[in-house]
Amino acid sequence: MLGRVDVHLSVLSKYAISSVRRVALPAIRSDGCCTRLFNLRRAVQHITLATADGVPVHILHTHLSAFTKGDGTVEAQVATLRSLIADAGPRWMLAGDFNALPPGVKATGLTGQAALEYPAALDEVPSPIAPLFDIAISAIPLTDLTDPHRRAEHLTCKYFGCSTAEVTLDYLFLAPAAWAVEQARVARDARWPSDHAPIVARLRSTLQPRGC
Questions:
Q1: What is the DSSP-derived secondary structure letter of residue 49?
Q2: 3-state helix, strand, coil in the chain (%, to 5)
Q3: Residue 158 CB contacts under 8 Å (≥ 6 apart), including other chains
Q4: 196, 169 in Cβ contact below 8 A?
Q5: For burial by CB atoms within 10 Å, which of 55, 86, 134, 145 has the most?
């Protein structure tokens, strides 16, 4: 990497943003001191939106580390996310590129760039993002992400030079008591200027207003 290595995260909203802050995530544990100086500095963007009923919406937007090869970095980053969720109140959502396969999806059989990033040896340890599926609703259910007949619909990452998406790395997690998912899909467009396809979701608030 040359130049700035801070990870820049953005959220576009038609609603007024009450506050925004950047929370640093743990660095890659296996990096040496020199590599760490020049590797990407991962972070969470924490945005707060005010609401008419007085219960704000907390949006956590992130991009976790890649190429950690199971050294515990992503687990430490997920622990930071869980801590932020615990303090976010009842109405929150968490989205981004988690650089981790869904729990239950094996790395064995991956090829090319995907096999380099997710070697088969990782199949021996639990997915580092499994705790998020335990405490949150996934906009695209885990059963769909792992179903061998349906998972191809939800692949989000198409590495540069590849003709089709190979793995699911991007997720939208929701507070269980606050949201119902009316529709969610991976939007694919050949003109999309990224190796990751976006998740498009329609949500309905299920949190009862105060006083009800």
A1: E
A2: 20, 25, 50
A3: 164, 165, 166, 195, 196, 197
A4: yes
A5: 145
Taking CA atoms, 68 is separated from 28, 42, 98, 128, in Å, by 7, 13, 12, 11
Q: How far is 86 from 66, CA to CA, in rounded Å?
A: 25
Report how far Cα 60 is from the mean position of its chain's Cα atoms.
9
Q: Identity (one letter) of the amino acid at 25? A: L
For the chain (212 residues), the mean pLDDT of every run of 10, in chain order, is 68 92 92 83 94 93 90 95 95 96 90 85 90 97 94 90 88 96 91 88 85 48
Within 10 Å of residue 174's Cβ, how many Cβ atoms?
Answer: 21
Distance between CA 102 and CA 154 in Å, rounded?
11
Residue for token digits 């007024």? 16
Structure tokens at 60: 């956590």
Domains observed in the chain: 17-205 (3.60.10.10)
